[in-house]
């Protein structure tokens, strides 16, 4: 998978993961970074479970990256930070 596909998968997975975890609005670059790092983390988790990580560009790659991004946001606690205006 090329670098452009990684960016697209990262953006989709990061956006979905931030919505599921209730994370505050992340910028476009941060969302993409969360998705790409989540793709790496998800690939490691899927490999550790005996399954295949991210392969070709497709729905399965987005799913793996989504799982990793959700775990990443949960571990870092970004999803639990709710900022309110006074």
Please characterize this protein's 3D structure.
The protein contains 3 helices and no strands. With 86 residues, it is mainly alpha-helical. α1 (3-21) crosses α2. The longest helix has 21 residues, at 28-48. The protein is globular and about 30 Å long.
Can you summarize this structure?
The chain has 3 helices and no strands.
Q: Which class best fits the helix and strand makeup?
A: mainly alpha
**Total of helices:** 3
The largest pleated sheet is described as: none
The level of helicity is 55-70%
Range of strand content: under 5%
Shape designation: globular
Low-pLDDT windows of residues:
none
Features:
86 residues; mainly alpha; 3 helices; 0% strand; globular
How do the helices and strands line up, and which of them pair or pack?
Elements: H1 3-21, H2 28-48, H3 59-76
């Amino acid at each position: 998978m090329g670098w452009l596909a990684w960016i697209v998968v990262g953006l989709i997975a990061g956006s979905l993961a931030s919505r599921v975890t209730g994370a505050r609005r992340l910028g476009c670059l941060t969302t993409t970074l969360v998705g790409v790092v989540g793709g790496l983390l998800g690939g490691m988790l899927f490999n550790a479970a005996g399954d295949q990580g991210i392969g070709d560009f497709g729905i399965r790659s987005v799913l793996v990256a989504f799982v990793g991004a959700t775990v990443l946001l949960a571990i870092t606690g970004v999803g639990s930070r709710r900022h309110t205006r006074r």
